[in-house]
Amino acid sequence: MKISKMLGYSLTAFVLWSSESLRPEAEAVAETEVEATKPSAAELLQASDRARGAAASTQGLIWNADIETIEAGSKNQVTYEIRARGNDAIAKVLAPARQKGEVMLFNDRTLWFVKPGLKKPVSISPRPRLMGQAANGDIASTQYVRDYEGKILGEDVINGTASWRLELQARAKNVTYDKIRYWIGKGTRLGVKAEFLTVSGEVFKIAEFKYLNNITIGGKKFPFVSEMVIRDASDNSNVTTIHYKEPKETENPPSLFNVNNLLR
Amino acid sequence: MNASTNFPIISLKGVNKTYRLGQVSVPALRNVSIDIHSGEFAAVIGASGSGKSTLLNIIGCIDTPDSGKVELAGVDVAKLNDNEKSDLRNQKISFIFQTFNLVPVLSVFENVELPLLINRKISRDERSARVRKAIADVGLEKYMGNRPDQLSGGQRQRAAIARALAGHPALVLADEPTANLDSENSHKIIDLMMELNSQRNVTFLFSTHDEKLMGRVGRIIHIKDGVINS
Amino acid sequence: MIHFWLLALRNLQRNLKRNVATGSAIAFGFAGILMLGAYVHRVQRYLETHTIFAAHTGHIAVFARGGFENFNYKPKEHSFSKCQQEVIEGILSADKNIEFFERQLWGSGLIGNGCLSLPFFARGLEPKVDERLTTQAQVREWLPDYKPFLKGRGLWHYPADLAPLALSRRLARGLGKVAVHDELSPGSVAIVDCAANDARASFARDANVQLLGERWEVALGAADGEVVAHYTTGFDESDNSALMAPLSVLQNLYETDAVGRYSLWLKDASTRQVTLSRLQESFSQAGIEADFLPWDDFQLSPYYAGTVQFLFAMASFIAVVMTVVVVFSVLNSTTMTILERSEEIGTYRALGFRRRIVRHLFVQESVWLSMISLAVGAVIGVVAIAFVNRAGIIYHPPGISDGMRLRLVLHPLYAISMAISLLLLTMFATWLATFGRLREEPAKLLGGITR
Questions:
Q1: CB contact under 8 A, C224 and A117
Q2: Residues of A contacting chain C (CB within 8 angstroms)
Q3: Contact A119/A125 with Cβ under 8 angstroms?
Q4: In whole angstroms, what is the distance from residue B56 CA to residue B60 CA?
Q5: pLDDT tens for each residue of C415-445
Q6: Which range of residues forms the domain containing residue B78?
């Protein structure tokens, strides 16, 4: 046999051998990469919470919320200024005039209501409705990762967005809902849709989200919720829309979230 | 004895009466036919169980025959209802019982007055007068206010006779009137009855099993095993 | 026929022991029926007075159309607006049978002490009317020991701007508001550190509370209140959440000038139905849609209606049992008597007494026995009632906030009607007992068939 042919056969063998030996590693790398892209429920919730007010800011956030309700044909509107820092948040009514100055204070899971002239704050629950379809706990920052145990149950396409479907179970009694069915966009990791369930598993209201806002935190830009539309599951005509406006990072001192300071 | 033979005050024709005692039937009267005339002083004599009391009961309309006809003063008793029979007894027939049968809570006067209380044809004054006369006739004026338990046997029977007579009956039926009396009182009672019979022409029919009284009556009716032997 | 009445009376002396026993049964049975009736009468009048006056029900309640059922869900649609109130009050003031009326409102929410909040169900009343109700003649007569409050004084003692509140006992305890306004320094408001160990003790340092409720238009409303009294509803289920407030306080909380209902008190309650019809006509002519409910309507006063219905059923049952026992005693006794006096009956019949007259003789005896026994029973009953009333026993039936003194109040008409009923029943029992016996031939009664 000629040497050139031998070299050719050797080269071919070498190529064949090397591709064989390398293939398992390549596959292993690819599978790891695939495994590395499926998030945990907690990760998804943390990401979606960030866009709904629970951003990890050392200073705090501020935004306005216009809540519009349509119920039995009649309309109402209230404007809040909301400041948040960590697990605390405070929502103050800016308009209408007769409600101006009313405040809801969130200290972790404890909620207070204060009105100008009231001698003491009133301890309230996040569950009762604030107005229309919005509960007290809906208006401030969302802390689903803190308040709910999540499980990824599957995948759906919601409003054209491929989403993870999660089931959230309340960790404590004093959170806003017992159970939530929550869809988070696979690519965006933003909450797309939520169905709020009773203890028996019936859907009683449905929320959908839009994220046309952006917020800069620590020099980084993040999407922020711009709209939350909540509908009564039994009567579509009853709807509450929360418009989130002008979110930005700001200095919120801890004293702002002290209930005793509200009365002075 | 003043027996009127014109018409019988009592007329029985073919009268039968049977009593049932459990499973046993006892014929008390068998085909009895008899006439008693007005003013008679008659005695029905027979042994115990012969049917004497049954005969008197049927004549007195306090019992009903199984068959046969009973006429009192021409009236067929069977055609009378209970109230009519009661009225007949009250106004036409009187009873004198062996055990006197006085009401224990009433005085002699009140006992004698008792049958007259339900006779609305008699006024109060007349009623009172009759009672006093009847009591006087039997010699119990002094005992008018006494209750039966305050009287002797003879006095009680006299009171019973006074009660029987106060209503001016046409017929007096006495069922063994002397059975509970001693012989002296028995004779006195019979004497009294005879006297009333002769003075007032009241028909007396009494039952007795005392043979000693047989000689003192105007007519004796023998009865044995429910059958009359005249 | 007076003789027969005397004969009947004398005949009672015969078989004296049996007659005494039968008479005792009648007497004690009647006394029992009297006491039972006196209890029912008193409880019914007590509950009636409590419902009409103490519970602010009124003789007639007027709701906006559908308001009785739906006010809690849609208060704005099922209440009377300010304009409607003016028209309504014109009608009510002009009605000659309406003595006075009260506007009322009710609602729910949270009541807080600065650290914790509890749910409340509030009744908004007019304090001046509340004061007037405590002085009503019927209240003084049937609720002489009425004390509406366990602690503190009525809302009418305090100015409206204080926002006086009366809290149910367990609600007050739950909030730590064990002291009332009058027991504390004026104007005291304690600042409490909710996390401190002695927070609970601090709650009692003032009588200040906060009410939180959903405004009728939209969103939450809140108001301060001052605890001036404690009371009890009489029911455990409501004693931890009920409160009373002036109407103006609730109207302020819910941001409305509407009224949920009117309670009307009449001068003459016996003409209630006529008044109700008249008002319906007047309201209809004025174009106001309203529902009118009488105070004893089952839906409006379920506790009263249900309790009284139950009470009457129980009492009737017991009374029937007692009556049956009495009647059977008489029947038994009379049957024995007639058996023993068969010969006497035969004698009467032989003397010409009709069945009817003989029956009457025994019925007359029964009448004497009954009348004497009923008289004795009435005395026993009256004495027993007096003893019970003197004993001063207090008991706590549900729904009666201040406990109830055990008192028996005999109604004369009831006593007379029961006496007549018993008398008639004993006469009937006697009649029944004689029935069979008098059907027999006098000869059989005289007992002579063997002679």
A1: yes
A2: 69, 76, 78, 98-99, 102, 113, 115, 117-124, 128-132, 260
A3: no
A4: 6
A5: 999 999 999 999 999 998 898 888 888 988 9
A6: 1-92+170-230
